[in-house]
């Protein structure tokens, strides 16, 4: 068992296999079987799993790496920039994409009318009292989309320059590092309101 758990790839593949067994078991026991509701639940699982990875790495960057980097001795910083940061950013950006794709899949499996209400903040059918929940959910969805666009359009392009993946001069590298940091802090700022919308809506409105 220790040998199995020592290998990351083996561990995560086994975890995915066990999750797949559980998902199949839910399909076999759910009242509707493998119907649209089952696929909505499956997409929700994928949305949550990828979202945990995305936001977890966002918090790692902001709670740990960005704060600690100034205290790391200069001779040790290249190890962070050449090995840890690029690997973390790989999972970070692709988890962001997966989170948004699976989130949109969940939304549209609930019906196009539901999706339009959420995306329009409840205005698609005329904003009545019983549709104000869509406004709050819409805020969360659009915050997530803005955060995703920030990852791919601001943070990642500037991190490539800051880490030397794209070669630029020292002044441009320093500027890119600051822009990437501010982009990451922007996502940190938006993350809790976004998560509040997601969690509160699902609990209170279903």
Description:
- The chain has seven helices and no strands.
- The chain is mainly alpha-helical and 206 residues long.
- The model has no long low-confidence stretch (mean pLDDT 95).
- It is flat and about 60 Å long.
- The longest helix has 35 residues, at 170-204.
Give structural attributes.
0% strand; flat; 206 residues
Briefly say what this structure is.
The chain is mainly α and 206 residues long. It is built from 7 helices and no strands. Helices cover 81% and strands 0% of the residues.
List the helices and strands and how they pair.
Layout: H1 2-6, H2 8-29, H3 36-68, H4 77-109, H5 112-119, H6 132-162, H7 170-204
Give a quick account of the main beta sheet: strands, pairing sense, barrel closure.
none
- Measured between the Cα atoms of the first and last residue, the distance is 40 Å
SSE order, one letter for each helix or strand: HHHHHHH
Using the CA coordinates, give the radius of gyration.
Answer: 20 Å
> Total number of β-strand segments?
0
The coarse silhouette is flat
- Taking pLDDT < 50 over at least 5 consecutive residues as the criterion, the unreliable ranges are none
């Amino acid at each position: 068992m220790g040998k199995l758990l020592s290998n990351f790839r083996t561990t995560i593949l086994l975890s995915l296999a066990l999750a797949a067994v559980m998902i199949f078991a839910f399909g076999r026991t759910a009242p509707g079987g493998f119907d649209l509701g089952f696929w909505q639940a499956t997409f929700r699982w994928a949305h949550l799993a990828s979202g945990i990875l995305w936001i977890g790495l966002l918090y790692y960057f902001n709670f740990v790496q960005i704060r600690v980097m100034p205290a790391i001795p200069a001779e040790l910083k290249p190890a962070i920039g050449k090995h840890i940061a690029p690997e973390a950013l790989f999972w970070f950006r692709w988890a962001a994409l997966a989170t948004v794709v699976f989130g949109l899949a969940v939304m549209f499996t609930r019906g196009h009318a539901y999706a339009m209400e959420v995306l329009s903040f409840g205005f698609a059918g005329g904003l009545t009292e019983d549709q104000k929940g869509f406004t709050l959910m819409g805020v969360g969805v659009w915050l997530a989309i803005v955060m995703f666009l920030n990852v791919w359009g601001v943070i990642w392009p500037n991190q490539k320059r800051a880490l030397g993946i794209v070669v630029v001069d020292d002044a441009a590298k320093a500027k890119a590092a600051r822009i990437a940091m501010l982009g990451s802090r922007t996502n940190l700022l938006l993350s809790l309101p976004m998560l509040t919308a997601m969690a509160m809506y699902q609990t209170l409105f279903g």
